[in-house]
Design goal:
alpha+beta; about 300 residues; T-fold; globular; about 20% strand; three-stranded antiparallel beta sheet
């Protein structure tokens, strides 16, 4: 899916470890062929190609339908801040960043008309999906990596591997702590920095963590910095200078929650995290000053 993917785990036999590593990456590849929008032959690309078709609804794989249901839950819980139908806007803004041409309001609104979860119909009885709007395009970038990382941790558990870390380009899921340690040590980027970390690290086990920000992808116009994280309600990238780190019990929740909380107001973001039983840390630059907001339980993860 255009991102690095790494797996670390502890086993008592090198041959077993080698076999499980190969099986894990084979499983990753199988999910990529379902969820990637970088591959024209992927199931996701084929599903998006049916948008607006007058033919019957499209039958999808169990993994894809599972993803659709999870995405629907994320959409509802986030009040529409997280929306996998954002694809046309994602592609549009990617082109704008590449050409360095800032669009007009009319151009943005024209593309924005192509999105909306109400234009995606899920048939839970027959496991079929219908995209009713022509030119719709699904984008699973804010949820699929966490899903895949969690599936690998679950697979390793099923093979009696209980100490593992899976990193899908920053979407991290961990099981038990490495031998002799209290947990896996995870660093957090400073807002707007690609290589600078906060001085403290987090200690995690049996958790998932994702940090979302715009340090790598953004566009500047008239003194404003527009993130690659797009607000579906406006059609524009958010202008907060913000990093959001989400800790949850599973990779899917941590992944989409970090994205949603990059769009929502701080107050709504903190409230959403509490509703989900998750913890978040928001680092935001205001008037040149770095300000942090967090749920009460987040501090318990900082390494003592």
């Amino acid at each position: 899916m255009g991102s690095p993917f790494s797996i670390i785990f502890y086993a008592d036999d090198s041959l077993k470890a080698s076999l499980l590593a190969r099986q894990s990456f084979d499983l990753v590849d199988s999910f990529v062929l379902i969820f990637s929008d970088y591959i024209d032959s992927s199931e996701l690309s084929k599903l998006s190609a049916t948008a607006g078709s007058k033919t019957a609804a499209t039958s999808v794989s169990p993994a894809m339908f599972d993803m659709m249901l999870l995405a629907k839950k994320a959409f509802d819980k986030s009040e529409g801040a997280f929306d996998i139908t954002i694809g046309p806007l994602s592609k549009f803004w990617r082109k704008c960043r590449k050409t360095k041409q800032f669009p007009t309001d009319e151009q943005v609104k024209s593309v924005q008309k192509l999105i909306g979860f109400n234009k995606l119909i899920l048939d839970t009885i027959h496991k079929k999906v219908t995209l009713i709007q022509p030119c719709m395009k699904l984008d699973l970038g804010g949820i699929a990596q966490g899903y895949i990382a969690q599936k690998i941790i679950d697979f390793l558990y099923s093979q009696q591997i209980s100490r593992a870390l899976v990193n899908a380009s920053g979407d991290i899921v961990v099981s038990g702590a490495p031998p002799g340690l209290k947990g896996w040590s995870v660093g957090v980027n400073l807002p707007e920095s690609t290589d600078e970390l906060l001085p403290e690290t987090l200690t995690l086990q049996h958790k998932a963590i994702t940090t979302s920000g715009d340090a790598y992808q953004f566009m500047e116009h008239n003194g404003k910095r527009y993130s690659h994280i797009i607000d579906p309600h406006t059609g524009y990238g958010v202008t907060y200078l913000r990093n959001v780190t989400a800790i949850a019990n599973d990779g899917v929740t941590a992944d989409w929650l970090a994205t949603a909380c990059s769009i929502l107001s701080v107050k709504k973001a903190l409230k959403l995290a509490l509703q989900l039983g998750a913890e978040i840390l928001i680092g935001e630059i205001k008037n040149g000053k770095l300000i942090f907001y967090s749920t009460k339980g987040f501090n318990s993860y900082w390494k003592q």
